[in-house]
Amino acid sequence: MSNYCADYIASLVQPDRVHRDVYEDPKLFNLEMDRIFGRSWVYVGHASQVPNPGDFFATRIGLQPVVMTRHSDGEIYVVYNRCAHRGVKVVNEECGNAGRFMCMYHGWTYDTNGDLDFVTQEEGYPNHKFEKARDGMGRVAQWGAHNGFVFANLSSSGPSLQDWLGENSGFLDDVAISAPDGRVEVSGGVHRYLFHGNWKMQVENLIDMYHPAYSHESSSAKSGQQFSRREGDKGGIQFFEKRGRVKSMDGLGTHALPHGHTWQGGLPPLENTSESHREYVALLEKKHGPARTREILTKKRHNVIFYPNMAMQELNPHIRVIRPVAVNRTEIFIYPVKLCGAPDTMFRDQLVNLNRTHSPTSLVQTDDVEAFARAQEGMLASGNKWILLARDGPKETLPSGRIKTTGTSEEGIRNHYRAWLNYMCSSSLI
What we know:
Layout: H1 6-11, E1 13-14, E2 17-19, H2 21-24, H3 26-35, E3 42-46, E4 55-61, E5 64-70, E6 76-80, E7 95-97, E8 101-102, E9 109-110, E10 116-118, E11 142-146, E12 149-153, H4 161-165, H5 168-177, E13 184-186, E14 191-195, H6 199-205, H7 212-215, H8 217-220, H9 247-252, E15 254-256, E16 262-265, H10 275-288, H11 290-297, E17 301-306, E18 310-313, E19 318-326, E20 329-339, H12 344-358, H13 365-378, E21 386-388, E22 396-397, E23 403-405, H14 411-424
Antiparallel strand pairs: 1-2, 2-21, 3-12, 4-5, 4-7, 5-6, 8-9, 9-10, 11-12, 13-20, 14-20, 15-16, 15-23, 16-17, 17-18, 18-19, 19-20, 22-23
Helix pairs in contact: 10-11
């Protein structure tokens, strides 16, 4: 179809299934970049990644290159990564520090807030009056932060950042308060990889508690040998009672929020008797007292989704950024989150665990990306053009609009598609 009207797009999503085209159609992908990534709040980065004036961090919102900067006034800006002259990408490094940004093509320079600074051989423009903002790199319509987590919106319309975050803002508060110093940093490097599949597969997978018992059996079942709780233990992490039983995952619970956000309930804490953990607990108790510390250490949320492009875990704190490349190509970035004031050895242990579970060659992540690739290929098969999302359980709708149900329910994924429809059908394709 040359024209994708709202009625057609709406026909692709039914209460218990979605059409395979939402994962396979390049035209729908391009619409998603405009209507979802171009009209929603999208995670850009963390303030700790640009701590000093002149610091910058280059990323993308959808397919659009942007730069998060710390300007000389101390404020954070989010600007488009393009030269106002001929449209050349100005900032080519992922991060660094610069007094000015200079375009390599004709030497135009820009302040770190995106304003035009200098035009080479300006006398060649006798009939053009330059203006710093108008002829600059251009700032995105909106940006803002909550506890240092920076989000941007290419559109000037829609809800405020705080309204869009909703109950998820409480999670960002919980992450910060779990640090002895009351703040976090994004440091420790990054894991990145490209998978052959649609970006929505990764978003869905993060709240799919139906798959771990099967996809990750070698790592998580009793018979698994890849992880062990203690030296000499022949079993895995013993997360499941036995293969095929997902009762423990149902008890975890799924929470579906407005705007497509979701999370699972908290995982039971693992026994940790290390010296660094005891030191960490002592620091929290000194600041908050034993009772409040117990509350802080009880993790209430797992795999928190900030729809459409970011997820966080609290148990082993890290950020996952989902960056679409094409309808069947997606980049993933894993950033460790450091709890400021906690022992350095504790952070090193955290990095080791992330290497085991979330690196491109990890024991767990490789299972997921293989499933994504097989799904992308399998959806091309004729016969059934629909993807079933009917798995359900008892539900409770809270006054905030949050829907609470069982851990293996696909309600969270259905919630994503309710948000998807809201964005995609807000206007007809021009």
